């Protein structure tokens, strides 16, 4: 009997890189195609099944399924078939940095058109996949706003702080409209609103930048979530139910030293200014009192197992403090290229190895071994059984394991 049921059937989740942005004025990219997830979707989901993972973030590429207001979702059919075959529940990612050509995200048209798309997508996938209907309306609104509004990496290629703020507001308005449109079709649908969880400090020799670093840590980090929750701009229709599940993305480069121009500089692994992840999760919990998942996390190369160990210890320490954490998403499942260089990052559970025209999925064994170790420590399944949705995760059981292990937050990051 499940005493404290979680939201998901497994504590560990995964997902696939699915960006569809226009990149540095060089044309549209499709990361699903670049990683061959479209060609290998049955294999990819079968691999998750062997890992005991029953939930995956999966993209619906808005700019590729809508042409002039006409929707064609047929490209989802093999994805849905693969999910059903392996019994994997999707969290549908509806806008992963990409939107249709000719549409201005700062225009009045944007929110309404996004809402129509969300409703059409919800109708198409309704009842066709296992488990609870879950959606991420717009992925990483805060990071999206930096990339497209201030740094000029992706369309619409804006390049000022003021444009970043304007884009963030526009994306929040669209996301809220999308949530309401989805729930007209799926009233019980859950939303996972994803953004990076970051901590920014001033340079040691620039204490005059302390206010700017504080602003980004304690205001900018939460600005989009605040609008979705209705704490700011309530006229947009946000509410705690719209925010719903807070998806925090956690990477080593999320703790940074403030730079006045461009992306900030990641702190080194032994920097004394690093904050324990458990402390940052506590900030999110105290601010919103909503369920939390770590929506993306991974190390790089040989550091992947040590990173998972650190994240697990911090997550369990957070749960022992009463934080309502429902899962950890090992993202991506298969490797992805560095957006800038095209080189493989080696951050997936599976590396990609070129064999002729195919990218073979090669498990990174030490990472898989570390996942297995934690699954056993938490009494989680290591391979999906015939009925993975019969019982959700018992969070009380996970919390009991956390209490038993007595893990403590620390600043020691791999």
Automatic annotation (TrEMBL):
This is B-glycosidase.
């Amino acid at each position: 009997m499940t005493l404290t049921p979680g939201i998901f059937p497994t504590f560990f989740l995964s997902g696939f890189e699915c960006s569809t942005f226009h990149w540095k004025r060089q044309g549209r990219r499709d990361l699903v195609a670049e990683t061959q997830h479209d060609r290998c979707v049955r294999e990819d989901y079968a691999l998750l099944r062997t890992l005991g993972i029953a939930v995956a973030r999966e993209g619906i590429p808005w700019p590729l399924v809508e042409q002039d207001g006409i929707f064609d979702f047929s490209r989802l059919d093999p994805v849905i078939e693969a999910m059903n075959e392996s019994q994997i529940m999707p969290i549908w990612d509806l806008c992963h940095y990409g939107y249709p050509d000719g549409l201005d995200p700062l225009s009045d048209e944007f929110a309404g058109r996004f809402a129509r798309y969300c409703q059409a997508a919800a109708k198409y996938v309704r009842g066709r996949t296992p488990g609870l209907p879950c959606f991420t309306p717009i992925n990483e609104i805060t990071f999206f706003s930096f990339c497209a509004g201030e740094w000029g990496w992706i369309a619409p290629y804006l390049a000022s702080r003021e444009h970043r703020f304007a884009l963030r507001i526009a994306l929040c308005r669209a996301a809220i409209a999308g949530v309401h449109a989805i729930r007209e079709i799926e009233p019980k649908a859950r939303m996972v609103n994803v953004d990076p969880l970051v901590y920014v400090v001033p340079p040691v020799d620039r204490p005059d930048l302390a206010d700017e670093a504080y602003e980004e840590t304690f205001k900018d980090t939460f600005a989009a979530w605040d609008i979705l929750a209705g704490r700011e701009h309530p006229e947009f229709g946000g509410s705690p139910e719209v925010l719903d599940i807070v998806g925090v993305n956690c990477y080593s480069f999320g703790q940074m030293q403030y730079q006045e121009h461009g992306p900030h500089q990641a702190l080194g692994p032994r920097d004394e200014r690093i904050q324990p992840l458990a402390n940052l999760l506590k900030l999110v919990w105290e601010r919103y009192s909503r369920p939390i998942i770590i929506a993306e996390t991974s190390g790089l190369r040989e550091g992947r197992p040590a990173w998972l160990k650190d994240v697990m210890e911090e997550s369990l320490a957070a749960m022992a403090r009463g934080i309502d954490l429902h899962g950890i998403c090992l993202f991506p499942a298969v490797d992805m290229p560095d957006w800038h260089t095209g080189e493989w990052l080696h951050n997936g559970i599976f590396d990609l190895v070129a064999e002729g025209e195919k990218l073979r999925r090669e498990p990174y064994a030490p990472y898989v071994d570390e996942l297995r170790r934690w699954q056993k420590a938490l009494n989680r399944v290591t391979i999906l059984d015939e009925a993975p949705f019969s019982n959700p995760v018992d969070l009380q059981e996970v919390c009991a394991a956390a209490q038993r292990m007595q893990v403590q937050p620390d600043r020691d990051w791999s």
